[in-house]
Amino acid sequence: MSVNNYIQTHKERFLNELLDLLRIPSVSADPKFKDDVFKAAEFVKESLLKAGADVAEVCETAGYPIVYGEKIVDPNLPTVLVYGHYDVQPADPYELWDSPPFEPVIKKTPNHPEGAIFARGSADDKGQFYMHVKAFEAMMASGDLPCNVKFMIEGEEEVGSDNLETFVLENKEKLKSDVILISDTHMISMQDPSITVGLRGLTYMEVEVTGANRDLHSGTYGGAVANPINVLCKMIASLRDENEHITIPGFYDKVQELSAEQRERLNEAPFDLEEYKSKLEIDEVHGEKGFTTIERVGIRPTLDVNGIWGGYTGEGAKTVLPSKAYAKISMRLVPDQDWKEIAKLFEDYFKSLAPASVKVKVRSHHGGSPAVVSDTSVGYRAAEAAMEETFGKRPIPTREGGSIPIVALFQKELGSDPILFGFGLDTDALHSPNEHYGVQNYFIGIETIAAFFRHFKKLSEA
Ligand code: BES
Ligand code: ZN
Question: pTM for the whole thing?
């Protein structure tokens, strides 16, 4: 039976297995779900063995385990390394989900007329990495696995991949490959397939501003003692000027400016601003002056407050002058910004903004480097050919705003080209309530991955 026939005849089971995986709430950020994260790792290992891996193991780390699996057909054949993550973002706020986040249901949406799977992790990244497991099974079952394959599926991507670096450095030989396939990004649409060639980096900070040594009566002391929330708001406001340019000295020093021609090409990607606005129900977009929306997301750095708290937020009113105020602030970075350098620049500047009436603490959570991947490598060309075959249209290269911190490390340490072979859509509500992944995207992804293996072998020999 051909690979595609095998996929067609096993569709229902392929879907049900993914639903089983989605029922495991493997939220890496919240220790409450610790057992489930380990359970998801076991599930991945078992699924690799069932699909035909010679080796599949749950490798311990200082945090959540990394699942490694492989099938070596012939050491002389090219080797594909698949990377993905089985951990998911927290599902909060639960009340905004139309159905429980860990009880997957299939519903139609305007972008997914044939149905989409609604569950936390459906697109990011369980539905996407599992396509590789199923493509592998289909190639094995039909006796047509054209390349060796290795899997490295981690459980800490959503919290910064802290232990993956050590694993990669300690296992360079084991992870040796000719290309690294990662399905954890978007494409433009089913009609406009694309391959991601740029990802932003990230620096994530937390700040604490302290006024008096305790909460105070806001009448007795208000007006005479600093209110740390007021101060924090002012400090945050001064991190950007009226053109939405970030004011941290040195912040843009290493930002690669693209040539007019490169920018023009980037802006040729299909993009409908009116549709973008209407889907988000906003009257206007907002960002750095002088750049288009595609550029603001793809090639420009940002600074955003992810959360801000302090004082009284309960029912009713309480007149209080709080002692402390906090914020979580992240910056998306572009080549060649260095996340550790940016963390330091932020810390110094943020502290310098504080009036003498408050004390400021700044700490760095995690970060990651931006990455740009080749659009001329053998891997890219194989991905292009595979998509052209299944979508009937040549994919275009795009730059995306999200981050996969480990991509830059792969480039540096493993020396093979990562291919960002994502099949999700940007409307799939990643990290938001009602995350979903198209059923059709899942199946076309499986077929395209199998096609990639064929093309990669052929092009590697050429
Ligand atoms: N799948 C995303 C990354 C992504 C999303 C890339 C959309 C391109 C388009 C990934 O799982 C993710 O969410 N990464 C985090 C990284 C962080 C926690 C270090 C992100 O981008 O916020
Ligand atoms: Zn994510």
Answer: 0.93
pLDDT digits (tens, 9 = 90+) for 328-369: 999 999 999 999 999 999 999 999 999 999 999 999 998 999
Q: Which CATH architecture has domain 201-255+301-368?
A: 2-Layer Sandwich (3.30)
pLDDT digits (tens, 9 = 90+) for 309-327: 999 999 999 999 999 999 9
Residue 349 has a pLDDT of 98
Give the span between the Cα atoms of 401 and 302, in whole angstroms: 10
Site to probe by mutation for ligand 1, drawn from 85, 158, 330, 403 as the one with most ligand atoms within 8 Å of Cβ, is 403
Look up residue 272 and give its two tokens.
């409908």
**Ligand 2 centroid – CA 83 distance (Å):** 14
Could you say which of 3.40.190.10, 3.40.630.10, 3.65.10.10, 2.130.10.10 is the CATH number of the domain covering 3-199+370-461? 3.40.630.10
**Centre of ligand 2 from the C-alpha of residue 405, in Å:** 11
Q: 66: helix, coil or strand?
A: strand
Closest CA to 266 of 396, 149, 378: 396
Q: Whose CA is nearest to atom 7 of ligand 1?
A: 402
